Amino acid sequence: MELDQIDKQILNALFKKGRESLTKLEKVVYKSESETMSHTGIAKRISKLEDSGLLKIQANTNVNTLDYKALFLLMEMSNYDEVKNIIKAYEECPRVFLLAQVTGQYNLILGIIGQSLDVLYMYINNCGPTNKKGILHSAIIWTSEFLIPKFLPLNLFSGVSKEHKCENICKACEAFLSSECGGCANF
After folding, report:
1. What are phi and psi of 29, to 5 degrees?
2. Is the pTM above the cut of 0.70?
3. Which of the two ends of the chain, N or C, has the fewest CB atoms closer than 10 A to its terminal CB?
4. Sequence-ordered alpha helix ranges (H) in 68-158
């Protein structure tokens, strides 16, 4: 998709203040040097950007304020089929905020969020992909604080667990049954 100057102005304004009203946006988005866009024109542009998949308006969460912890899991996989299996299993996991294929020593990187280090340890040891088939090597990098971005697109409080997709079933998990883990849908 090709962005024009108006689209770029709208995206920049929304980046600075995502809840800005359309009537305020019409004062800062210009069609020309002296003519601003109408709020209805801006609304149509925003809808076009959303429909194209370029823009998604959503609530993002400051994990530092919640005092949540995070880690990055790097995985070297045995083959591409195993890479696809991990992606399919964890693409909807509520704890995974980043899932990307990378090049170099590792094939995948996952960003994983939890309420505490204990929760993250429990996840890695019981539910995480490190104990899945096809992993040759993995490494964990623990974060201390998110500097940029401060806000992440997390769906922490949906109450819907996706444990069956990752092939982990909480009701059969020793950590879940002993109340050491509240399950992926329990933030």
Report:
1. -105, 120
2. yes
3. N
4. 80-90, 117-122
